[in-house]
Amino acid sequence: MMEEHTGNELTLMLEGKKPLAMFYFCQAMDDRDVLPVDDFAPYVKNGQILMEEFDPPLPLGTDPTYQITYVLYALAAEAWRIPAMKIALTAQSENFRKPDQGIDRIIGMLLGYPKQAIDSWIQSGIDKGAYQ
Prior knowledge:
Largest sheet: 3 strands, antiparallel
Helix content: 25-40%
Shape: globular
Strand content: 15-25%
Distance between the termini: 25 Å
Radius of gyration: 15 Å
Number of strands: 3
Number of helices: 5
Order of helices and strands: HEHEEHHH
Structural class: alpha+beta
């Protein structure tokens, strides 16, 4: 179910089926150019979609060259999801070495995934030993 969103974020947002999309890049990897910024640009310009970049705090001892920058896009009517996602990403960055099911569930809900897809994602993390 989550796979249906990947690569189709803009289309799903324009259809009203996805309230928030999240992309990220790392300056050290020089991979910003893989983000679909140009695709979203006309909708950001006309105000239909809002965009914000966010750099969550780095965990202590992390090399700053590996800062992750998130690019968040929300439907204008769902603008509240951007600050909520920033809170979730901040909490996640503070638990960087210890994934948290609750935070992952909140992120999934903010991105508009159905409960069944979130449950499946969490279960796969449990099966892989990610949540301990």
